[in-house]
Write a structure and sequence with these properties.
The protein is α+β, with helices and mostly antiparallel strands. It has four helices and five strands. Helices cover about 40% and strands about 30% of the residues.
Length: about 120
């Protein structure tokens, strides 16, 4: 049974400006494992990764129905690549299945999260 659906979008240009300032935002948003993956990337791929992970956390919060804040922090949601390069999202705040998707072009990064009990 579907528990919730969340969708979010961020502008690539906005994330590019954040990445250009250094790692402060990335360290605030990403879990330790996500940050390791992020550090291995360069250029546009780094921007897409950070924007995608931030947007997925927002999508997850919308699907859960709590928003980000007291009940759900940015580091309570983690999205890593599996062996095929697909995003796999996990959270200690939801026990069911989490389906996630990320897409991007030169202008926007869009994410979708579906939570299933």
């Amino acid at each position: 049974m579907i528990f919730g659906v969340g969708i979010d979008a961020v502008e690539v240009e906005r994330i590019a400006k954040i990445v250009a300032k250094g790692d402060h935002f990335a360290e605030k948003v990403l879990t330790a494992k996500e940050f390791v993956q992020y550090q291995k990337l360069t250029g546009q791929r780094k921007i897409e990764y950070l924007g995608g992970r931030f947007s997925l956390k927002e999508s997850f919060a919308k699907a859960l129905g709590t928003g980000l804040g007291a009940e759900l922090g940015l580091k309570d949601v983690e999205t890593l690549w599996n062996e095929k390069g697909q995003p796999v999202t996990t959270s200690n705040k939801f026990a069911g299945k989490i389906f996630s998707s990320i897409t991007h072009d030169n202008h926007e990064i869009i994410t979708l999260v579906v939570l299933e009990n």
